[in-house]
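User: I'm writing a short report section on ligand binding and want a predicted complex to refer to. Could you take this sequence and nicotinamide-adenine-dinucleotide and write out the structure as tokens? A short remark afterwards would be nice.
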Amino acid sequence: MHRVVVTGGSGFLGSHLIDRLIEQGHEVICLDNFFTGSKDNIRHLLDNDHFELIRHDVIEPILLEGDWIFNLACPASPLHYQYNAVKTIKTSVIGTINMLGLAKRVHARILQASTSEVYGDPLQHPQKEEYWGNVNPIGKRSCYDEGKRAAECLMMDYHRMNNVDIRIVRIFNTFGPRMAVADGRVVSNIIVQALRDQPITIYGDGSQTRSFCYVDDLIDGILRLMEHPTETRPVNIGNPHEFTILELAEAIHKILGKKMNIEYHDLPSDDPIRRQPDISRAKEVLGWEPKVGLEDGLKATIDYFKRKLEIL
Ligand code: NAD
Ligand code: UDP
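Assistant: Sure. The structure tokens for the complex follow:
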């Protein structure tokens, strides 16, 4: 049993991670400033003796004790991370410094939620961890991409200089229940628009690709990485099945039995054209690969949004 600190714990991924940690018998302290997180995601845990919630912004230092730290605090949807770009990069840089300082002080193992965005608009395909990426340092996505790259740099430097026990996971597009209705990312947008019989928003011509991982698989991968005794290199966790955005929209409409009504919008600047993880390292080191296919994952996510929209 460990005492575990999860930053960003009331968000989409953080709340699923906490559920699994509690199931495994760990004690969890959740830190969140509720920018994109929601109490709804953790309400079922509020009476649990193994769970503690602290409203806290990771930009401020905090004194706690713990064996493991999962640093997930950071808005993940372009809509939200661009809302206050300076705050986003502060969250990744100052927030990560604060959590690394905590890890150093109490000798905790710390995992940083990094992202496929460190590869930018990738010139290598699929993306291996050795690839250094093609990131615009001055664009609208830079507050997120460069913030996460700086966070990885900080993790490595605290590891090299102070022997902090680090784990770095590069998460590729993940979806599932507990995404916010107004999250703004593509899976939730299209499902919510289709359920409301609104036109679906496709940015560009919809031929750009992403590889979508179901949340349960993702959490399984993150936990395996944290439990690994020695792996301090970055590890890609994602589903290697690549789809165009139009194919994703078609898959959602097929499940719903609805016809597509598309509204085309301009492609945002620096929107990556292709993205697909090479997961050889995760397979080899963690024995991990995703199990849930796109259709099954979408069905579970659609069921969640149906329930969520009825209560709104
Ligand atoms: P999310 O927006 O649902 O969750 C982020 C959480 O962090 C929210 O609860 C939010 O309130 C909290 N937060 C934001 N800024 C904070 C701050 N300064 N102090 C304290 N809390 C703060 O997003 P998510 O999809 O759950 O993403 C979680 C993590 O995983 C993020 O670090 C994100 O960058 C990373 N990630 C996610 C994906 C994905 O596809 N979901 C892909 C790559 C990386
Ligand atoms: N996208 C879209 N319609 C939407 C939201 C997103 O066509 O309503 C596109 C977006 O331009 C991108 C892809 O879907 O090419 C994935 O976008 P998302 O914001 O989910 O994630 P990211 O771009 O960070 O991978």
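A remark for your report: The pocket of uridine-5'-diphosphate (ligand 2) is lined by residues 77-78, 173, 185-186, 189, 201-203, 208, 210, 245, 267-268, 271 (CB under 6 Å). The mean pLDDT is 97.
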